[in-house]
Design a protein that fits this description.
This protein has 321 residues and is an alpha+beta fold. It is built from 10 helices and 13 strands.
């Protein structure tokens, strides 16, 4: 297996965002602190570059970008590049390496999620995500679709404004075992002053759940937990490979809490570890597998708050323009 094409999340190289992308690198770093993340591997930036080189896609990209700069519609140009990617087969050696790495996760019959792991923020304007893939053929097709996502109209426009050059940009792809949160729960956790805040809902975390459970935890040797039970009238479950649907929760789900005290303490510990590792406040997306009852962190990102806008009412007698 080409070590430059495939990196497992437990490998040392998995912490290098230039190799595996920012999202995968963060997960790999957190896993080294004992935070549980789904097992998987990354199809690296070098693998993307091999695909473009062997498929002779560089001239196609350059030609279409010239057409855009000459006045052609951005969406038309981006679609033409993605079409060329879709018509190009993965190099045999790369395909073999991806299939071998998938076989290590269980091979055909094993459900995985495949998603983009952009190297720069402007490349992640519209991240592709494929769920419930359970054959090597599907995994290969999803990897190629993720490569093509580097040339969504938004990503092309962003690079035109901010860089990098289209011919030097790359798109790693992450393949991980599925977490069946549709049968369990999901939410977010982040630190705030001396507290850790946890939001929890049944089913998938997106779209936002209807009135989720909210918890505040004071972590430590004798943690204190403040609980607010949400109404949780609905939950989101999968409807096919890429779609979701909203369904009513059961009376038992509405009257109960999504997480136990022990699970809340685990999430609080993970939040503290993530903040220390990343040297800033982080927001973690967590998921609970309804089959294994295990908790996982599926994404980590810097915590941001919406800007606060203070408006001053006009004073009497002052003309407002």
């Amino acid at each position: 297996m080409g070590t430059d094409r495939i990196v497992r999340l437990q490998d040392d190289a998995a912490t290098d965002p230039a190799v595996v992308g920012v999202k995968s690198a963060r997960l790999a770093e957190l896993s080294r602190d004992g935070i549980r993340v789904p097992a998987g591997f990354v199809v690296t930036a070098a693998a993307y570059e091999e695909f473009v080189r062997e498929g002779r896609l560089g001239p196609v990209i350059a030609r279409e970008i010239r057409r855009y700069r000459a006045g052609r519609d951005l969406r038309v140009v981006a679609a033409a590049i993605r079409t060329a990617f879709g018509a190009t087969s993965l190099p045999p050696a790369l395909a073999d390496d991806i299939l071998a790495a998938y076989e290590e996760l269980g091979g055909d019959g094993t459900e995985v999620a495949v998603r983009c792991s952009p190297i720069t923020p402007q490349d992640g304007a519209r991240d592709e995500l494929f769920l419930h893939l359970n054959t090597g053929t599907d995994v290969l097709a999803a990897c190629r679709r993720c490569f093509a996502d580097l040339f969504s109209a938004a990503a092309v426009g962003n690079r035109e404004l901010c860089g990098p050059d289209h011919l030097t940009a790359a798109m790693p792809v992450t393949v991980q075992l599925m977490v069946r949160s549709d049968r369990g729960g999901s939410g977010t956790v982040h630190g705030e002053s001396s507290l850790v805040r946890v939001s929890a809902a049944w089913g998938l975390g997106e779209p936002a759940a209807d009135d989720p459970d909210q918890f505040s935890i004071y972590p430590g040797s004798h943690p204190m937990i403040i609980r607010h039970r949400g109404a949780k009238r609905t939950k989101t479950v999968y409807a096919g490979r890429r779609a979701t649907r909203l369904v009513p929760t059961t009376p038992k789900e509405r009257s109960g809490l999504v997480l136990s005290d022990g699970e809340l303490q685990v999430l609080a510990q993970w939040s503290v570890l993530a903040d220390a590792r990343c040297k800033r406040r982080m927001e973690l997306d967590w998921a609970k597998d309804g089959v294994s009852s295990q908790l996982y962190v599926v994404e980590a990102r810097p915590l941001t708050f919406p800007p606060i806008v203070i408006s001053t009412p006009p004073r009497a007698g002052v003309l407002q323009h």
